[in-house]
Design brief:
6-stranded antiparallel beta sheet, 4-stranded antiparallel beta sheet, 10 strands, 50% strand
Length: 118
């Protein structure tokens, strides 16, 4: 129903910035919420935050508040994760995911993109 493809633009040095993008296509009903997750080596996957189709955007993860921003383009087809002041502990596989407005879980997932900060 929904296809999500992540991509990376930018450098990966500690202290630097990186922008991830997630191209979303498919039935808009299942793309009401778009979110970013990450999974560091040896750890469980965690939600970073989300953006909704009505413009609400939240960062849930405490360690990235003030450094990461989630946004969506006006057409609603691309989700972004702007990451500033990157740290080695931000090294992880980053995923985007989507769900409908009424679903209680994220139903569609991208394959993920590796971010390594050195």
């Amino acid at each position: 129903h929904v296809q999500l493809v992540e991509s990376v633009v930018g450098s990966v040095l500690a202290g630097g910035s990186l922008t991830l993008s997630c191209s979303a296509s498919g039935y808009t009903h299942y793309r009401f919420y778009l979110a970013w997750f990450r999974q560091a080596p040896g750890k469980e996957r965690e939600q970073i935050g989300f953006n909704s189709a009505i413009g609400e955007s939240r960062i849930w993860m405490y360690d990235v508040k003030g450094r990461f921003t989630i946004s969506r383009d006006t057409a609603g087809n691309t989700l972004y994760l702007q990451m500033n002041n990157l740290r080695p502990e931000d090294t992880a596989m980053y995923f985007c995911a989507s769900r409908s407005r009424t679903s209680d879980r994220y139903m569609f997932w991208g394959r993920g993109t590796q971010v390594t900060v050195s």
